[in-house]
Fold:
Amino acid sequence: MTSIAKNQSVFSQGYLFLGRFSTAGANFRNLPKIFSIGNFKNNPVFKSRKVMVGLVVLILVVGGFWLYKSKSPSSIAGEATYIAEGPQVTIGKKFNIAIRDSEGTDTGSALSVNTTHLERTEKVLYQGKPLVAKSGKDFLVINLEVENSTNDRLTVRPVDFYRLIDDSGKSYAADIQTEDVKVQAQSSKKTRVIYIIGDNQKNIKLVIGEIRGENKETIEVAI
Structure:
């Protein structure tokens, strides 16, 4: 019984010390008090080798996790950060997409979609992971902004707004970042879709708009 009570006391002291350490992190003036020699000598935590080892491991784990999070690439609303930026072409094409209910009936409202610019690059981040184009290939990134002026949260599929046309006239949907995107009521969201193209393919032909409807147009750009 005595041994159990003693061990609980040691761990309680360790918990209190860590609490004081985390609180002091916000105020550097308190750190000398926390790490004073007297504080180390008088605290039972530091008289137990097992507890000391545990504390060191815990501090290393927490510190390593904090360092990893602070250095991990940022991502905003599904829009990952580029590893290597490439040439860009401004598009600035806007179009409206009719909003339909679950039965496919036009609700009378529409989404506004602005294709802002294209970018060509060899490296991107997608879902926090680096993607590097294979030899002889590049990523063609279509950047867009979706505006929802309704009072409802809407789910949209940006992959359905674009088709890449090859020299033979065949059309292709995007290869990467083809997931649905949720746009909150009365808000705009930036997102993108990504194609994989040959590095010698300089002239790009795209159909943009409501691919399954009549509200669409074909554009050609060199990038």
